Amino acid sequence: MEQVSMVPVACLDIQPNHAVLDMCASPGSKTGQVLEAMQIRLFQGEIPSGFLIANEPDLKRCKVLAGNMKLFSSPCIMVTNFRGEDIPDMKQGDGQPLLFDRIICDVPCSGDGTIRKNPNVWNNWNPARGNERFSLQLNIARRGVHLLKEEGLMAYSSCSMNQIENEAVVAQLLEESEGLIHIFSPKVRSLAGS
Ligand SMILES: C[S@@+](CC[C@H](N)C(=O)[O-])C[C@H]1O[C@@H](n2cnc3c(N)ncnc32)[C@H](O)[C@@H]1O
Fold first, then answer.
1. Is the CB–ligand 1 distance for residue 29 below 6 Å?
2. Would you say the CB of residue 102 lies under 6 angstroms from ligand 1?
3. Per-residue pLDDT tens listing for the chain (194 residues)
4. Which of 34-60 are b and which e, b meaning 16 or more Cβ less than 10 Å from the residue's Cβ?
5. Is 159 a catalytic residue?
């Protein structure tokens, strides 16, 4: 995995006791990174008390995700198959709503940030490719905000450089939240050697 694609999860300071949701998860590179953080003390016999729900709406990609996650043999992951914007309300054993400490919202996008390694993206690029994804990206991120605990953290990311797909989505979320959500400046631990 490229180091830059590890940044969103690295910003979240994921702990073994966290409830984590990965909203757009396949093929699972960020999901795997989350699991590694949650299972950091597994070899000392400590099974994480938290859990991770990895969601992917596309059935084929969901199967790829499930296959990739199987390799981790993890006791704390579940794979689901919803559209991110429609992830249902869930309840805990005590009937309280299930909300998440950490959410990864790595949305489907135009992919124009990957042109360096995939030149075909440039051949097919036009302004609409990014602009037309704004509503979907916003709807997925909105659902994420609703599923977040107070004091929780959500990383919004895409592999696009288009401000409509990035800054505009975040700006709209901030405006709608009327001060309930804030941009957080994390201290990212070095990714070198990971
Ligand atoms: C950028 S990729 C995710 C990459 C993944 N997070 C990783 O690091 O390996 C975006 C994913 O979002 C999925 N997707 C498409 N529409 C979606 C929706 N409405 N809700 C959630 N995910 C969606 C795509 O099928 C794709 O697998």
1. yes
2. no
3. 788 899 999 999 999 999 999 999 999 999 999 999 999 998 899 999 999 999 999 999 999 999 999 999 999 999 999 999 999 999 999 999 999 999 999 999 999 999 988 999 999 889 899 999 999 999 999 999 999 999 999 999 999 999 999 999 999 999 999 999 999 987 766 665 44
4. bbebbbeebeeeeebebbbbbbbbeee
5. yes
d(CA 39, CA 17): 10
Half-sphere exposure at residue 192, Cβ-oriented, CA atoms within 13 angstroms: 1
Domain boundaries, given as residue ranges, for the chain: 14-177
Quickly list DSSP for 90-126: -B-TTS-B--EEEEEEE-----GGGTTT-THHHHT--
Architecture, CATH, for domain 14-177: 3-Layer(aba) Sandwich (3.40)
* Cβ of 106 below 6 Å from ligand 1: yes
Given a contact cutoff of 8 angstroms between Cβ atoms, the answer to whether 138 and 173 are in contact is: yes
- Amino acid occupying residue 155: A
